[in-house]
Design a protein that fits this description.
Number of helices: 9
Distance between the termini: 63 Å
CATH topology: Rossmann fold
Bound molecules: nicotinamide-adenine-dinucleotide
Radius of gyration: 20 Å
Structural class: alpha/beta
Helix content: 40-55%
CATH architecture: 3-Layer(aba) Sandwich
Strand content: 5-15%
Shape: globular
CATH class: Alpha Beta
CATH superfamily: NAD(P)-binding Rossmann-like Domain
């Protein structure tokens, strides 16, 4: 028996990376999945892999920045599979990057349309369907960039922080309907979003990402799919309004390097062995 037997899910951005891994995982746990993405070739490949993994899936071409397309993805779930239990608002891109004074208004708005407005639309249109079946699970991909700033990532950080707080306000309102609303804050996951902009591609990116957090490897799409599965499943029946951090320890504190050493300790700033007494005695 699968953890998502008889559940129906819409997953946006499921042609690649985190969304793709999650769609395949959900299908393997018994869910029927609407794979929603701009990218038809990638989306159809995900559908094939979902089916190979034992589930049902269909592709729905959708631009999540468009209200009618998000509405269409939800409608497709109901038309094709008769109900909606889970939506994973996951589609994303880097958007406007670079110094703040160089960001055009147009690129700012385009970024927030995909990274934030789409999450609002996903929640708005899934709620009526979830009410009809007595509850549901809404999941969105935020980021550790929604918990901290990132140089040159102003629109991205602003949008992801907003996803975290939209998750909380929606959770407060929808608990009475047994609709749970949570988001995931991934750290550095080695997906095309990251490695397509790094010279040397996937392998170089994996080495690069391994050095940012105490758990010394790059994040994998499956690390996030595992959390999405938990939040989608009945195991998370009492979890709502949460921002689940999955980042190999990146945001656990400052000064950490792989292997448990510490940049701060390396320059003699961190605690040493033994005892650190009152400062006046030193
Ligand atoms: N990779 C990371 O390190 C990381 C870290 C934190 C958060 N995230 C977030 O995870 C989510 C998934 O990203 P990923 O890393 O898997 O990247 P990815 O590029 O592999 O996948 C993103 C998918 O979103 C789709 N997409 C982009 N714009 C769209 C639109 N307007 N409408 C529909 N689909 C659209 C793309 O076609 C792609 O299939 C994003 O929200 C991203 O911001 C990624």
């Amino acid at each position: 028996m699968g953890r998502l037997d008889r559940k129906v899910a819409v997953i946006t951005g499921a042609a690649s990376g985190i969304g793709r891994a999650t769609a395949i995982r959900f299908a393997g746990e018994g869910a029927a999945v609407v794979v929603a993405d701009l990218n038809r070739d990638g989306g159809e490949a995900t559908v094939r892999d979902c089916k190979e993994n034992g589930g049902s899936a269909v592709f729905q071409q959708a631009d999540v920045a468009k209200e009618s397309d998000v509405q269409g993805a939800v409608a497709r779930a109901v038309k094709e599979f008769g109900r909606l239990d889970i939506i994973y608002n996951n589609a994303g891109l880097g958007g406007a990057v670079g110094p703040i004074e160089n960001i055009t208004l147009e690129n700012w708005d385009r970024s927030l349309a995909v990274l934030l407005r789409a999450v609002f639309l996903g929640i708005k249109y899934s709620v009526p369907e979830m009410r009809k079946v007595g509850g549901g699970s809404i999941i969105s991909t935020a980021s550790v960039a929604g918990l901290r700033g990132g140089p040159g990532l102003h629109a991205y950080c602003a949008a992801k922080a907003s996803v975290v707080n939209l998750t909380r306000s929606a959770a407060l309102e929808l608990g009475k309907d047994k609709i749970r609303v949570n988001c995931i804050c991934p750290g550095g996951i080695n997906t095309p979003l990251v490695y397509n902009s790094i010279p040397g591609g996937e392998q170089v990116s994996a080495q690069f990402l391994a050095h940012f957090q105490p758990l010394a490897r790059a994040g994998r799409p499956d690390d996030i799919a595992g959390m999405a599965l938990y939040l989608a499943s009945d195991d998370a029946e009492w979890v709502t309004g949460a921002a689940m951090v999955v980042d190999g320890g990146l945001t656990a504190g400052w000064g950490s390097t792989p292997g448990g050493g510490g940049a701060a300790q390396g320059v003699g700033l961190g605690p040493r062995d033994g005892w650190s007494g009152p400062s006046f005695e030193r």
